[in-house]
């Protein structure tokens, strides 16, 4: 079984949460899963910038990334957040390898919009490195930083990066682990399943905004790219990774078309 697990920055902000998830991921790998982890770290980034007197500005949920913010992206996403997570995974028994999209041109990107600075959209995922590591028992842990063949460095939304990597890796499952219970409908109830048509309705109605809107769009892109199952689930739930991989219905499953009758 091949799966990609995307960890939201809020889950990694707490050492207890990070350690618990690292233990679950290591256990899933020990059971034979070929896994890739992609992570963000937005909360840590916002604090870092504030401490250095740099205002965080967002456009449509994307962080405007000027030259001074690119340096912070490398120090926070590719540095402290990635290395702390790798250390936790290794402590739990995994053989984790910290990476960015810059390494071996794993994830190539192009500038999304000059007004956003060095915010990138993924153009290519060269998954050979992911396959090589996973097939030899290593766990790739990829920070949401990409590059290009001219030496450029890009801040890439972690949900978009996770979806693109899941497609290129040939993942059967993509898990977005986050700090909310799942996708909420207009009545603030967690939906167990949402279709592409319902995603459009939730976004148009203002019920899925910001980070959740991004996750839903990334989920649909992953499904369109051939990923078998996509789920948005609460990373704080006990044994959430084992339970989802075992088929338990936790959080929200995103599907492309009509939900089959039970």
Short note summarizing the structure:
By secondary structure, this protein is an alpha/beta fold.
Question: How are the elements arranged and paired?
Answer:
Blueprint: E1 2-7, H1 9-12, H2 15-30, E2 34-39, H3 42-51, E3 58-59, E4 62-63, H4 67-91, E5 96-100, E6 107-111, E7 120-125, H5 128-135, E8 139-143, E9 145-147, E10 153-155, H6 158-169, E11 173-178, E12 193-195, H7 196-204, H8 210-224, E13 229-234, H9 240-245, E14 252-255
Parallel strand pairs: 1-2, 1-11, 2-8, 5-8, 11-13, 12-14
Antiparallel strand pairs: 3-4, 6-7, 9-10, 13-14
Helix pairs in contact: 2-4, 3-4, 6-8
Within CATH, the superfamily carries the name Acetylglutamate kinase-like
Number of domains: 1
How much of the polypeptide forms β-strand, as a percent range? 15-25%
CATH class wording: Alpha Beta
> What is Rg?
17 Å
CATH 2nd-level architecture:
3-Layer(aba) Sandwich
* H-E order: EHHEHEEHEEEHEEEHEEHHEHE
Mean pLDDT figure: 94
Shape: globular
């Amino acid at each position: 079984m091949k799966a990609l697990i995307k960890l939201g920055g809020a889950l990694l902000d707490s050492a207890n949460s990070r350690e618990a998830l690292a233990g679950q991921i290591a256990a899933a790998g020990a059971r034979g899963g070929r896994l890739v982890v992609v992570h963000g770290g937005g909360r840590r980034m916002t604090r870092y910038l504030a401490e250095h007197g740099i205002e965080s500005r967002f456009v449509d949920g994307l962080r405007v990334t000027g030259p001074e913010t690119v340096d912070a992206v490398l120090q926070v996403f590719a540095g402290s957040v990635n290395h702390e997570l790798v250390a936790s995974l290794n402590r739990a028994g995994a053989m984790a390898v910290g990476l960015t999209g810059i390494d071996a041109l794993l994830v190539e990107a192009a500038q999304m919009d000059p007004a956003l600075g060095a915010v990138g959209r993924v153009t290519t995922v060269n998954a050979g490195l992911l396959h090589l590591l996973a097939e030899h028992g290593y766990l790739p842990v990829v920070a949401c930083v990409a590059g290009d063949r001219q030496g450029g460095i890009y801040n890439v939304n972690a949900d978009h990066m996770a979806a693109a990597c899941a497609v290129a890796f040939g993942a059967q499952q993509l898990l977005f682990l986050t700090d909310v219970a799942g996708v909420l409908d207009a009545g603030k109830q967690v939906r167990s399943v949402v279709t592409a048509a319902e995603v459009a309705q939730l976004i148009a109605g203002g019920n899925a905004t910001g980070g959740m809107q991004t996750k839903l769009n990334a989920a649909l892109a992953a499904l369109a790219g051939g990923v078998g199952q996509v789920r948005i689930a609460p990373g704080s739930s006990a044994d959430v990774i084992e339970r989802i991989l075992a088929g338990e219905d936790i959080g929200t499953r995103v599907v492309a078309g009509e939900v089959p009758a039970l």
